[in-house]
Structures are given as structure tokens and as C-alpha cells.
Specification:
Shape: elongated
Strand order of the largest sheet: 6-7-8-9-10-11-12-13
Number of helices: 16
Distance between the termini: 98 Å
Strand content: 15-25%
Largest sheet: 8 strands, mixed, barrel
């Protein structure tokens, strides 16, 4: 009930009249008391004043009750209106409004999630938030939340998060959130909003994020080296190893991911050098009679820092093989050949990785004339039972013999495949069947007994 409703003014007017009458009779009673104190109790003004003192609390209580009812009704109307307004905002908002409990399970999502991420609220609520956020970003987000001063109720803003659309594509979002509090201060989760970044901002965010993380890994030396053995198929001896980079990261993504991110961030050479330094240091524990194949991009081969790094490693150049990867194509081979020539003259060897898996690797072979050609798994899988693959394998073995290169078969998984490649004249193999990669020096020590002729480890 509002002030304009008819009942309220009448009550107010009656209350005013009672007060006026009360004042008049109080003045009259006062005058009678002065003129004739003995007749005060019989005076009509005193009697009416006494009656008004009884009636007045009743009138006041009635007024207060009416006012409480009016306020309660108005508050109910406002609450209903607010709820309807909030529902309209949530349904029509162009931002994604979300809430998760302390386990990361979605407890609320507005319809914007369907447009932005392909997940209608009904399909999203009850699922863990890792269905829409990349594991690496989720881990960093939780860490940031735990270390921020959100217990005071202050929200975190401007968090750039990489989300995953239902179709698998990446959606970069600007996320703002806050801690949800329950009674007695119990943590019950988080709530907030998300808004997709424009394409230009998303690309910049991706490059910036990758750059920051890669530089942090390099600075903190969060790289490891796993060595995978390479065996001579005629003698069975260990003749070399390939250095495989591993990253100490919570999300556990592979090296291919990080080198692809480095290319986006313009840090290919920086990451290459960090991996090379780590591998060369670890290689000092290997048998001195075997070679070490180091993965390197063609662009890093042109870096003037490379000769100095190889010289400082303590390994003779004749034990080092630079294995050119397909991460970057080469548009002009003359600078690459010129940069590698002095090192090759001093004993360095060149290998081309994943031969046969793409056009870039075959171009590398024709222009660089490598010392080692490593055949991709796609040419080896099922070769024992495929006449076309057998013919191609025989042709590649003859090609390698003609240019004086060693042919290494990668990815052999069965004894039948191993027998087939050996029968074609392929001279070396690297695969899980023969030996798995290892980051443990105790495994490397066991290779001394099968490394063929050469100096033995000092006791």
C-alpha cells in the first residue's frame, strides 16, 4: 500500500485530531487546576485527557501495524520486480554468467554459454569446468585465485583464459570473478562473467601468454632430456641416441605443442638453444663411442651462437648430429648450407627427420645431402605385409646408399616389421621395440655394455 492509498491519510488525520484535542483539553485542565484545584478530577478536560491517554497507544499501534503491512507489501513487490529483472538480465546478457562450487562443478550458467562455447546451460551444469577450459589455464587460474586477496571479497579482473568450444576450437575470454561466501565463512566456490576477446586481441593474448610461459620455462630451466637408443641392425650394437626434449609442466603437454607455441611467440631459436644446452649437458653421461642426435630447426642453424654452444659442450663434433626438423620450411637453402659447412668439415653430421612424412623433409634431403636419413613411422607401419611399402623402402635404401647416407627406420613396433626393414638393407633402427626413451641416468649407464667398440666407462 502506498501513501496515495485512501486508508492511510484517514488514519493519519485521525491521529492528528486526537493530538489536537489532547492538547486543548490539557490546556483547559491546566487552567482549571490553577483556578480550582479541588475540582480538577471532575473537570471534563481532565477526564477527556485521561481517556485519550488510553486511546492513544491503541491508535499508535494501529498506525504502526498498517505502516508495517504497507512496507512489507512494497518490499515484496520490489523483490518480485528485482527477481524478474535479474532473470531478464541473465537471459539476455551478452556476457557469460557462471558459477562453480568448490570442486569446480558448474552450478549455474546463463544462455550465453550456448552462443560462446556451444554448451547450453542444461548440458553444462553438473559438469566440471575443465570441459570448457584448457587444463593448463585451469591450473594457473586456480593457482592465481588461491594466491590472490579474494578473501576480502574483492573480485579478480582482466584474467585472460583460453577456453575450449564444444567443437574443439579455442575461444580466448576475458574473465572476471569473485569468491562466493556461505554462512560462517565457508568457501562454496566462485562466480563471475566471461566475454570473448576480439580476434585481434585473442591472437595477441595467445602470443603473449605463450611467450611468457616459454620464457619462464627457459629461465627456470624446466626442460629435461630423454635419450632414445639407435641400434645397428647388422651388429645389434648401440650406435647413437636421439635427444628428446621433455617439459616439466603441470599440464603435461608434449614438446610438439611447446615448439609450435614458440613459433607463434617468435621464440623458436630461444627454445631450441635451451633444449640444446640441456641435452649436451646430459650427453656427458653417455658412452663416448655413440653419437648424439639433437633436434634443431633450420632457422636455429643460422644463429651465430650455435658454433660457440657446440664448442663449449665438451663433446667432439664427430659425436654430434644435428637433426633438422620439419617445424619450419626453408625458403632458401644457400645460407643454411653455408652455415653448416664449417661444422661439417670438422666432423659434425646432419640428419633429416621424418623423411617421407611431408614435402619439406624430401626437400631437405635433396638440398642438404644429409649423413643420416630417418624414415617416418608412416612408411614403416605394416611394411612387412604391404608390397607398395616394401618397394618404396627398397628404393629409399638404394637412394641412401647412393648418396652415402645411413638409413634409420623409426617406429618399428613388431618383430615382423623389424625383419622386413633389415631385409631391405636398412642399416639402423630406432623404436620402442628396440629401446624406449629414458630420462634416468641409471638407464643410460646400462648402455655402456652394448655400445660396441670404443672406450668404456671409468669405474
Amino acid at each position: 500500500m502506498t501513501d496515495k492509498e485512501p486508508g492511510t491519510p484517514r488514519v493519519r488525520d485521525a491521529l492528528v485530531c486526537v493530538l489536537v484535542v489532547q492538547v486543548v483539553f490539557a490546556l483547559s485542565a491546566g487552567a482549571a487546576l490553577i483556578l480550582d484545584p479541588a475540582s480538577m478530577l471532575d473537570h471534563p478536560g481532565v477526564q477527556l485527557l485521561t481517556g485519550s491517554l488510553i486511546v492513544m497507544p491503541i491508535v499508535m499501534a494501529t498506525v504502526l501495524a498498517l505502516r508495517f503491512r504497507r512496507n512489507h507489501r512494497a518490499e515484496s513487490i520490489r523483490s518480485l520486480n528485482d527477481a524478474q529483472l535479474m532473470d531478464t538480465v541473465l537471459r539476455t546478457s551478452r556476457d557469460w554468467v557462471w558459477a562453480v562450487n568448490d570442486q569446480g562443478i558448474f552450478t549455474f550458467s546463463n544462455p550465453a554459454s550456448a552462443t560462446m562455447l556451444g554448451w547450453p546451460p542444461a548440458d553444462l551444469i553438473g559438469r566440471h569446468c575443465n570441459v570448457v577450459i584448457e587444463p593448463a589455464d585451469l591450473a594457473r587460474s586456480w593457482k592465481a585465485v588461491q594466491t590472490s586477496d579474494i578473501e576480502s571479497g574483492s573480485p579478480w579482473t582482466g584474467a585472460i583464459v583460453r577456453c575450449r568450444h564444444r567443437d574443439g576450437t579455442t575461444v580466448w575470454m576475458d574473465v572476471t570473478g569473485t569468491l562466493r561466501q556461505a554462512r560462517e565463512g565457508q568457501r562454496v566456490g566462485f562466480e563471475g562473467t566471461g566475454r570473448p576477446l576480439p580476434p585481434e586481441s585473442a591472437q595477441a593474448a595467445a602470443a603473449s601468454e605463450s611467450r611468457t610461459r616459454i620464457l619462464a620455462m627457459i629461465d627456470q630451466k624446466l626442460l629435461l632430456t630423454a635419450f632414445q637408443p639407435i641400434h645397428d641392425l647388422t651388429t645389434g650394437h648401440l650406435i647413437g641416441v636421439e635427444a628428446l626434449t621433455r617439459f616439466v609442466e603441470e599440464d603435461g603437454v608434449g614438446a610438439e605443442y611447446w615448439f609450435a607455441e614458440a613459433a607463434v611467440a617468435g621464440l623458436v631459436s630461444d627454445l631450441d638453444f635451451a633444449a640444446l644446452e640441456t641435452a649436451l649437458e646430459a650427453a656427458l653421461c653417455l658412452p663416448p663411442s655413440i653419437y648424439v642426435a639433437l633436434n634443431i630447426s633450420p632457422s636455429t642453424c643460422l644463429d651465430p651462437r650455435l658454433p660457440g654452444l657446440l664448442k663449449r659442450s665438451g663433446l667432439p663434433l664427430k659425436r654430434i648430429v644435428l637433426e633438422l626438423t620439419e617445424r619450419l620450411e626453408v625458403s632458401e637453402y644457400t645460407p643454411l648450407i653455408s652455415a653448416l659447412k664449417p661444422l661439417r668439415q670438422r666432423g659434425l653430421r646432419i640428419a633429416v627427420d621424418d623423411a617421407g612424412s611431408g614435402f619439406a623433409s624430401m626437400r631437405h634431403i635433396l638440398h642438404v645431402r644429409p649423413d643420416i636419413i630417418k624414415l617416418d613411422r608412416s612408411l614403416i607401419a605394416g611394411i612387412d605385409d604391404n608390397q607398395g611399402q616394401l618397394a618404396l623402402g627398397a628404393a629409399l635404401a638404394e637412394f641412401a646408399r647412393q648418396i652415402g647416407a645411413t638409413l634409420v627406420a623409426e617406429g618399428i613396433e613388431t618383430p615382423e616389421e623389424l625383419a622386413a626393414v633389415a631385409g631391405l638393407g636398412m642399416t639402423a633402427a630406432q623404436s620402442y621395440l628396440i629401446g624406449r626413451p629414458s630420462v634416468h641416468p641409471r638407464d643410460w649407464a646400462a648402455w655402456y655394455e652394448n655400445s660396441g667398440p670404443g672406450p668404456r666407462r671409468r669405474k
